[in-house]
Amino acid sequence: MTSLWCAFSVRKIIHVDMDAFFAAIEQRDDPALRGRPIAVGSGAGRGVVMTASYEARPFGVRSAMPSATAKQLCSELLFVPARMDVYRAVARQIRAIFARHADAVEPLSVDEAYLDVTAAAALAPATAIARQIKQEIRAETGLTGSAGVSINKFLAKIASDLEKPDGLTVIRPEEALAFIGALPIERFHGVGPVTARKLHASGLTTGADLRAMGFDALVRRFGRHGAYLWQIANGRDERNVNPDRLRKSVGCERTFGRDLSSRAELESALLPIAQKLEQRIRDAAARPRTLTLKVKDDRFRIQTRARGFGAPILDADRLHEAGRRLLDEADLARPIRLLGLTVSQLEGPSPQPDLFDDNHDA
Ligand code: TTP
Ligand code: MG
Asked: Are strands 49-52 and 13-18 parallel, antiparallel or unpaired?
């Protein structure tokens, strides 16, 4: 009786993440790059590494690293310029494969998604579905992805990372608690370096430590984030696979009490907008690469000016600085009644939002 009930109540979630996505596509399309350490991104000036092939990783070359540093670590590193249109087209192919197998698909970034296969798993085991998806990805795109299969999003995502590249890792319901118990708290989503330091200072290093501390003590010490940590440590993550989660843009704008005329006033008015936007970017777990400035003057004429970035633009200072540069491109002859900043092109890996970051209401 119990096992029957379990069979119907336990969800089956798969997380798929492509291996060295941009770099693997470049190696697929140019045989001369295969088997070699490559980085996608600009190798010139202040360029950054978008991703590195698995051959480059043993040298320590990583995403978001300045290209100059990467070259120092690996002198043979080949830089290949990004071809975003190609990557997006492959992302669409992969999503089409997911849609064939899952009841719900939630893309997290250009190369990863959560799949809810609970209903499909009544016909074939979730592990077999994951294997089939990996096969179809390989057959239709010539690329490999890694899959994690488990009972919730948290465990599925951790699982997909465990045997990269070309991995398939299953964390079964009966293994979940032991797995989380041994898991270092740094691996918990939402625990970045700041939170990790605080937890370590309280003697907490693993999921088992969090469980042992107990719900009440965790909440007393860490507020609602303590409650979240306790839930996760006990294998509870009820978040649904939500197909509509991915947003196209995030923005913030202000209409001023009086129209602003001086450049200095406009620049300082832009700062709180950038700060609010930083918070919204974090809340949306976005990795935006385009910033758009909106300017409305006293005659309600609207101008927009936009700029793209090689790496995600996330913090208020950079948003403010980029916004000020965009002001240079706008016609500011008339008094200004509204300024706005919007980021778009949100695709990219979701960051680990840190629960105790300054802007968070921890
Ligand atoms: P990831 O899935 O984080 O990395 P990856 O697919 O290259 O490698 P892994 O096998 O470890 O999953 O990101 C997917 C793509 O997003 C990556 O190929 C390039 C891009 N990207 C950036 O442009 N900047 C970044 O800082 C990161 C992390 C990724
Ligand atoms: Mg990936």
From this structure: unpaired
pTM, entire model: 0.72
Return the residue matching tokens 């949100």.
Answer: 346
Tell me the backbone φ, ψ of residue 292, rounded to 5 degrees. -120, 130
C-alpha 322, offset from chain centre: 22
Q: Residue 245: which pLDDT band, with cuts at 50, 70 and 90?
A: low
Both tokens of residue 170?
Answer: 């299953």
CB 151 within 8 A of CB 173: yes
Q: Which residue's alpha carbon is at the smallest distance from atom 15 of ligand 1?
A: 21
Strand-strand pairing, 78-80 and 38-41: parallel
Q: Atom 16 (ligand 1): residue with closest C-alpha?
A: 348
**Whether residue 69 has pLDDT greater than 80:** yes
What is the pLDDT averaged over residues 356-360?
A: 38
Give CA–CA dist 347/286, Å, rounded: 7
Instruction: Centre a 10 Å sphere on the Cβ of residue 292 and count the other Cβ atoms it contains.
Output: 17
Choose which residue among 15, 16, 21, 112 to substitute to test ligand 1 binding: the one with the highest number of ligand atoms within 8 A of its C-beta.
21
CATH class label, 177-233? mainly alpha
**pLDDT reading at 326 higher than 90:** yes
* Domains in the chain: boundaries: 10-19+86-174, 21-84, 177-233, 249-347
Instruction: Evaluate whether 284 touches 332 at the Cβ level (below 8 Å).
Output: no
CB of 80 closer than 6 angstroms to any ligand 1 atom:
no
Among 48, 51, 112, 290, the mutation site with the greatest number of ligand 1 atoms within 8 A of its Cβ is 51
Output 61 or 243, whichever has higher pLDDT: 61
Q: What are the tens digits of pLDDT across the range 149-197?
A: 999 999 999 999 999 999 999 999 999 999 999 999 999 887 888 889 9
Query: Does the domain spanning 249-347 belong to CATH 1.10.357.10?
Result: no
